[in-house]
Amino acid sequence: MNVVLCVVFRAIQYGKYILHSRGIHGAHSAFIFDLFEHVFDEGIVFYSFEAIENERARLKGSNEVIDVLDLGAGSKFQSSSQRKISQIARTALKRPKYARLLFRLCNHLNYHNVLELGTSLGVTTAYLSHAVSSGSVYSIEGSKSIWEKAVEVGNNLNLRNVHYLNGAFSEVVPSILEKKTFDLIFIDGHHQGDALIEYVEMVQDDLNPDGCLVVDDINWSPDMQEAWQKLVQSPTFSLSLDFFEMGLLFKKEGMVKQHHVIKY
């Protein structure tokens, strides 16, 4: 899907999102209300945020050019394999708003083990690392050159609980799942609908009963939106939350199936 069509599609989807999303007063579930109070509140700030954002600023100011091997759907903004670190930092990293939401989600729900499919430059990884300081983060990146920069970011921030892994998701994930189960699984790579469904089917049995599966860029393209809708309808997940940029899926055994479009 070319850049123009992608922008048009996202604009249409965003209009639908604005029409259908609702805030805290529309939440009838005690669990969802609790998330609004402790996770979706952007005013809740932690000491570690400043150091991570300083590292983001350093990356955005870097003129270094690297050769990127993209195993997924590619960049929305550039087709060349030669990319500046600054451009990747500006266009591929999750905005602070969403990276901090994932931090608060892990922190508030007392999650310990995280699997991230798509490290990029490792800024969101750093947020996850601090959120589960007594646990572990396993993060996979397909491009070796980007993976090396993520490891550099981890070293700069003195992250000691992150396992940085380089390779294709389909090759690396099975070896991790043989050893661990996870409280949070964040899928942020290979933005194609059929691949998303494949990865969810690969990892969903290794998501702990009270865990959360996070899908990034659910409105990237028509096939990603279609795949997201299939996941919303899946009997595996009883609760789904859509806030345009991301979708959250919870197993929440015993909960009546619910779907909410959240204003955020």
Q: Can you describe this structure?
A:
This protein is an alpha/beta fold. The protein has a single domain, classed as Rossmann fold (3-Layer(aba) Sandwich). 43% of the residues lie in helices and 19% in strands. The protein has 10 helices and 10 strands. An 8-stranded mixed β-sheet has the order 5-4-3-6-7-9-8-10, sandwiched between helices. Strands 1-2 form a two-stranded antiparallel ribbon. Helix 9 links the parallel strand 6 (182-187) and strand 7. Helix 5 packs parallel to helix 6 and helix 9 (193-203) runs parallel beside helix 10 (222-233). The longest helix is centred in the N-terminal third of the chain and has 18 residues, at 3-20. The chain is globular and about 50 Å long. Residues 74-78 have low confidence and may be disordered.
